[in-house]
Amino acid sequence: MKTHYLIWGSLVAATFYACDPKSSESIESSMNEDTTEVADEAESRPSPLEVKDGQISGKAFKVHYGSPAVKGRTLWGDLVPYNVVWRTGANEATYVELASDMTVEGQNLPAGKYSLFTIPKETGTWTVIFNSEWDLEHGHFQYDDKNDVLRVEVTPVWEESSQERLAIDLENPGLVIRWEKLKLPITIQ
Q1: Domain range for residue 39?
Q2: C-beta separation of 82 from 121 below 8 A
Q3: Does the first or last residue of the chain, that is N or C, have fewer Cβ atoms within 10 Å of its Cβ?
Q4: Which InterPro entries does the annotation name (predicted)?
């Protein structure tokens, strides 16, 4: 019987609390603070989100990626291991969005959204992968090669100058990835 009165009393108290205008104001205030914290967190994340929107060969193309910094670290073969799938960025998976069918390194890629992965190699060409599972929260940790739509081989160029932040730009010959001394030009038409 005591349990019945306790439950009933709790329900009555909860009803009065929910109807109190001051409590709803504090709930709204708390929600606004939470929203502000999330927005601040997104702006202050170590690898900021970058979105590049433009055209390649006159066709709409967009790329979304987290842009990590070198921060004095050894990247190739260490932070980014050789012969292992890399999400080509930081945080969630990098993805591209094509409004029209295009060719990548001479091979057809249908219009759509694709996550972009690479397999860096110590020597020779790197593998660039377009995967149909584009909305992956944890990048390469959720990667499944069964969803690969296209794999191409691309020759990296090692430059003298170093770039602190990863950049993926829409420029000739299509899409160019730069980070530290790497330049990876992917031919897209």
Answers
A1: 2-43
A2: yes
A3: N
A4: DUF2911 (IPR021314)
